[in-house]
């Protein structure tokens, strides 16, 4: 059994949670909901080029890096933001984390978080479709002390998100939970060990410029 000092626990807690002046660092998340485009159904059955160039379905075809009817709407690169809501010790509206998340067609996901690379800023997840344009994500990150040399635990991020009718944005909910190296949850009522709230995503394409997002 590993023992973790109080200072390392605090590092994981605050290092795993919030960006900005209130907390020192960040964690990551879960979300959900769903709506659907009638335009997409029309696209599946009627595909003259002139029709596809107009309307939401045509816009989706141009913006998406792969215009493939077999791909799920979540597949692609997204700019994401996690905002706290009803989290212990974290005011509603605080940005818990942000970054870039890639959802792959093989049901895996990769997040480049705004956390310090020394404490762990890259993490991996797996996803499953659970409804129309709605997806669940189970995501894991390794956390380190400020030196980047000592593991202090694991962070589990769960999301349920719904992609909008134009397939260019999503929103949903997230939870973030911190565990010690033995898999024991750090006290959830202490700030940094548990976070929850709302996650939003904006699609990034080959034509997206920094000022566009």
Number of strands: 8
Q: What's the gyration radius in Å?
A: 19 Å
Range of helix content: 10-25%
Strand order of the largest sheet: 1-2-3-4-5-6-7-8
Contiguous helical run count: 4
Strand content: 35-45%
Parts with pLDDT < 50 across at least 5 consecutive residues: 1-62
Return the domain count.
1
Class from helix and strand fractions: mainly beta
Q: What coarse outline follows from CA principal-axis ratios?
A: globular
Largest beta-sheet characterization:
8 strands, antiparallel, barrel
Average pLDDT rating: 75
Rounded to the nearest angstrom, the distance between the terminal CA atoms is 45 Å
Encode the helix/strand succession as letters.
HHHHEEEEEEEE
Jot down its keywords:
disordered N terminus; mainly beta; eight-stranded antiparallel beta barrel; 38% strand; 15% helix; single chain
